[in-house]
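Students often ask why inverse folding is considered easier than folding. One informal answer: many sequences map to the same fold, so there is more than one right answer. In these notes we will look at a single instance of the problem. The structure comes first.
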């Protein structure tokens, strides 16, 4: 933390429906970090910029510790965010940490459609392998919350509630995609899957990637894996052909390697790095090889923290680039017994904590970081901050 205080907003991963049918979802969270909490300090959320007038917060709370959060009654609707918005544009909610009747920290909830381009002058010379990439776990398994999707299967399958295009507009630059092959649909055999749940045509998510990269020129990593029901090499060949059919014009050549700089890719229209986690793509000039991955397979935050401690401080992380899966994972018996509640509850338990650990403890070692329900983490702004902090180190 720089200065005496920080405040920022996230969107709670929690969602529920009351017995009366009332839905609660996408509540704004006020987060803060201060050196010391002083008598009279308060934090508030505002529906207009409080820089000139902070007397009318929509919700106001009193912090008791130097680091924490409050879930407010303010909510963020599913907004039609777009690459047409300015980098860092505010989306209607602000937060202020107030001391002695003066805000000492103000921030807003933002989009980041062009943060790489905005930071090109500062971090453009950094190699791709040495950047921090904020990312999305199971990015294609998205759907807005509803009571119908809150059943015993879906609440352990849905990982996001924003489209891939929106995930990118909010600033994420690593997209985890799981592909499945279904022979019963000869016109559309490739679909996004999560385990055995099937979501949307793979072509659809590729088109979202294409639209974003064409509009912004930002550098994006898309990793394709899973390959549910891929039984022959022809199934992989078909998937590879589909990917190139849709996004070939923006695919970065494999021979650039991870030693290319951010500026190298920002100055070319081909800035989409596609990783294909199967040897069938090994000889293709547009598909990058699989990278190392660290996955805790943890069911509690204490297990996840212990795993991350071992990765960063005992064994040491793999050679960059590598990805850290920062989410909890339910076992089959957890889904059956429903002991963990849902992926939303699990994300709420870990996202803010992992964000803090990456920002304060392991900022100089992280590479690609991903999670469920990304708006409840602050990965994008942490990545921006850490990328700048590293070059100043």
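Output (designed amino acids):
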């Amino acid at each position: 933390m720089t200065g005496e205080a920080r405040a920022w907003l996230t969107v709670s991963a929690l969602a529920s429906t009351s017995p009366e049918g009332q839905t609660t979802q996408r509540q704004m969270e006020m987060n803060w970090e201060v050196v010391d909490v002083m008598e009279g300090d308060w934090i508030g959320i505002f529906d207009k910029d409080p820089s000139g007038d902070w007397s009318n917060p929509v919700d106001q709370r009193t912090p008791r510790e130097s680091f924490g959060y409050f879930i407010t009654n303010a909510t963020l609707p599913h907004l039609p965010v777009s690459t047409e918005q300015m980098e860092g544009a505010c989306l209607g909610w602000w937060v202020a940490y107030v001391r002695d009747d003066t805000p000492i920290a103000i921030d807003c909830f933002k989009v980041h459609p062009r943060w790489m381009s905005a930071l090109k002058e500062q971090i453009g010379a950094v190699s791709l392998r040495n950047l921090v990439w904020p990312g999305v776990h199971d990015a294609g398994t998205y759907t807005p919350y509803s009571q119908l999707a809150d059943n015993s299967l879906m609440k352990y399958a849905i990982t996001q509630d924003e489209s891939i295009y929106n995930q990118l507009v909010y600033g994420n630059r690593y997209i985890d995609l799981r592909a499945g092959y279904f022979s019963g649909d000869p016109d559309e055999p490739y679909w996004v899957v999560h385990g055995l749940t099937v979501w949307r045509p793979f072509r659809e998510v590729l088109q979202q990637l294409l639209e974003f990269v064409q509009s912004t020129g930002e550098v994006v990593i898309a990793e394709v894996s899973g390959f549910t029901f891929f039984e022959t090499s022809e199934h992989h060949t078909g998937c590879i052909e589909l990917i190139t059919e849709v996004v070939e014009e923006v695919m970065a050549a494999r021979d650039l390697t991870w030693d290319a700089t951010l500026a190298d890719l920002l100055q070319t229209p081909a800035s989409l790095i596609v990783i294909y986690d199967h040897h069938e793509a090994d000889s293709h000039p547009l598909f990058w090889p699989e990278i190392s991955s660290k996955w805790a397979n943890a069911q509690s935050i204490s297990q996840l923290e212990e795993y991350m401690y071992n990765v960063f401080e005992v064994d040491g992380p793999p050679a960059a680039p590598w990805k850290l899966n920062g989410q909890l994972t339910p076992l089959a018996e957890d889904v059956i017994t429903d002991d963990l509640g849902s992926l939303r509850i699990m994300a709420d338990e870990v996202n803010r904590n992992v964000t803090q650990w990456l920002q304060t403890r392991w900022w100089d070692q992280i590479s690609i970081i991903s999670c469920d329900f990304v708006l409840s983490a602050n990965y994008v702004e942490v990545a921006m901050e850490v990328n700048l902090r590293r070059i100043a180190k």
